[in-house]
Amino acid sequence: MSIVKINALTVPAEQREVLEQRFASRAGAVEGSDGFEWFELLRPVEGTDQYLVYTRWRSEEDFQAWMDGPMKAAHQGGAAGGGAAGGDRPKPAATGSTVWSFEVVQQTGPKQA
Questions:
Q1: CA 52 to CA 44: how far, in whole Å?
Q2: What phi, psi does 3 have (nearest 5°)?
Q3: Hey, is 51 helix, strand or coil?
Q4: Is pTM beyond 0.85 here?
Q5: Which residues of 41-70 are buried (b: 16+ CB within 10 A; e: fewer)?
Q6: Could you read off the pLDDT of 28-67 as tens digits, one per residue?
């Protein structure tokens, strides 16, 4: 079965739009990765300032390969990272981050008509 990684990002109210725009501008960045199965950016509705970044992967090895390759490159600046010339990078929208890992032990989808 698949594995799930959830990155809980603490995002101040004034940075929410910035965070959502940054994720929208990177659309397609993970979808072609080997073993990638699903992505969702979850906006908090009430009771928390944490966004959840949900990804599902075929295996831990596939996730680690993405982390060590495309994700790492995208977060180190340069053209892929969205940084300005000279290495200046935009200020992070989140003030904190925690990654949770899960194994999928059961799953189901909607019934087909």
A1: 8
A2: -120, 150
A3: strand
A4: no
A5: eeeeeeeeebbebebbbeeeebbebbeeee
A6: 778 989 999 999 999 999 999 999 999 999 999 999 999 8
Tokens of 21: 């725009």
How confident is the model at residue 113, as a pLDDT? 82
> Tokens 């982390």, residue?
67
Q: What angle do CA 96, 11, 55 make, to 5 degrees?
A: 75
Q: How far apart are CA 3 and CA 90, in angstroms?
A: 31
What distance lies between CA 41 and its chain's CA centroid? 7
Strands 36-42 and 96-103: unpaired
Report residue 32 as tokens: 């072609």
Tokens linked to 104: 């999928």
pLDDT tens per residue, range 92-103: 899 889 999 999
